């Protein structure tokens, strides 16, 4: 058993007869009244996200997890296929288990969390950033660089990301996977 002081991003807990992964949390100490922890929980079975508030010192049941390295092979509808990089065993996961499926490129190496009790996959942890090639974007207008203007761009995985005006088709860009936002242009 853990308490609210052990809450951290990525922790898996058992709550309401389901297993949830903490995706955001905030410790709040108001001027009067007791402290509490505001959390955003994502169900590992259904993918639903819910907001919950735990009072300070509240006991939570954490789930022991094991992290294994897998390589993304391909997607088939809403089913995603992964291969263990150690023993080459393959598993399939539903799209709801992924945080940012639109940014997942074939061959990408990810970490998958497994429940140690029953060896069921719980969630997929993407790398902090991915490098993808821009496949389509409108050309930037010369001289329109004084403002922080952005334009939509489609990347090789099919996802859309807002990028600065100087980005062209064929450029490789670094994208932050947590927010799905542009970070920088990558030079070869």
Quick structural overview:
This protein has 188 residues and is mainly β.
Order of helices and strands: EEEEEEEEEEEEEEEE
The third-level CATH topology of the largest domain is SH3 type barrels
Note the main sheet: 6 strands, antiparallel
Unreliable residue stretches: none
What gap, in angstroms, lies between the N and C termini? Answer: 49 Å
- What is the overall shape? flat
Helix content: under 10%
pLDDT averaged residue by residue: 86
Structural class: mainly beta
Which CATH class of the largest domain applies here?
Mainly Beta
Record the strand order, biggest sheet.
1-6-2-3-4-5
Q: How many β-strand stretches?
A: 16
Strand content: over 45%
Q: What Rg is obtained from the alpha carbons, in whole angstroms?
A: 20 Å
What's the total helix number?
0
Architecture of the largest domain, according to CATH?
A: Roll
Total domain modules: 3
Keywords: Cytoplasm, Elongation factor, Protein biosynthesis
GO biological process, one term: peptide biosynthetic process
Organism: Zobellia galactanivorans (strain DSM 12802 / CCUG 47099 / CIP 106680 / NCIMB 13871 / Dsij)
GO molecular function: translation elongation factor activity
Explain what you see.
With 188 residues, the protein is mainly β. It folds into 3 domains: 2-62, SH3 type barrels (Roll), CATH 2.30.30.30; 65-125, OB fold (Dihydrolipoamide Acetyltransferase, E2P) (Beta Barrel), CATH 2.40.50.140; 129-186, OB fold (Dihydrolipoamide Acetyltransferase, E2P) (Beta Barrel). It is built from no helices and 16 strands. The radius of gyration is 20 Å and the shape is flat. The model has no long low-confidence stretch (mean pLDDT 86). InterPro entries: Elong-fact-P_C, NA-bd_OB-fold, Rib_uL2_dom2, Transl_elong_fac_P/YeiP, Transl_elong_KOW-like, Transl_elong_P/YeiP_cen, Transl_elong_P/YeiP_CS, Transl_elongation_fac_P. Pathway: Protein biosynthesis; polypeptide chain elongation.
